[in-house]
Known about the structure:
Arc Repressor Mutant, subunit A, three-stranded antiparallel beta sheet, 129 residues, 64% helix, 3 strands, 8% strand
Amino acid sequence: MPETYSIMHRLERLALAKAYIALTRVMVDSVFGKKPADHSLLLIGSAIMVGHAEDKPMSATKIAQYIGLPRSTVIRKLNQFLKAGVIARHGNVYLLSIERAHNQTKYVTEAMRIFRIAEKDLKASELDT
């Protein structure tokens, strides 16, 4: 095994990486089940959720700018979401489908648990913000 070396802000990076992995797995399960996931779809779906939750739905152009993907990729993925019934298009903006918006999913509870663990781990940090 190769010799390791220290990592600056090790505990903070560890907490954030574990939270990211756990949260991504929960979101993948929520959206895709056990099928392999295209993580760009998670970014796009998250952007749609942000716009919807803030009452500022986003267009394909705004989503692309928000998450840093090419607009052509975003449009292609939006069409996949539309076909699957996950989102709805209203004019040139996108929202969660009514079914998704009104669905109480277990991933919200699990995601909040993950954030609480990460918050606890980060509070133990001596790193100033």
